[in-house]
Write a structure and sequence with these properties.
The protein is built from 2 helices and no strands. It is mainly α. It has one domain.
């Protein structure tokens, strides 16, 4: 019985760790995506619809200041 409890605990731990690593990967991916979009925006600003990225840019600029 004890072994069963330990297994379920480690399964829960592994599950929570897995979810954590997924969310971390997502954050890193979104960050690099945003960074490349900003670089792309600096290079080709007329290319990107400004309305779609206005909230993103305002958030980033407010974060920088």
């Amino acid at each position: 019985m004890k072994a069963l409890v330990l297994t379920s605990e480690s399964a829960e731990y592994a599950k929570s760790n897995f979810v954590l690593s997924i969310s971390e990967t997502k954050i890193v991916f979104l960050y690099s995506l945003a960074k490349s979009l900003i670089m792309f925006g600096i290079l080709n600003f007329s290319f990107i619809p400004k309305i779609a990225f206005a909230p993103v840019f305002s958030k980033i600029s407010s974060g920088l200041s």
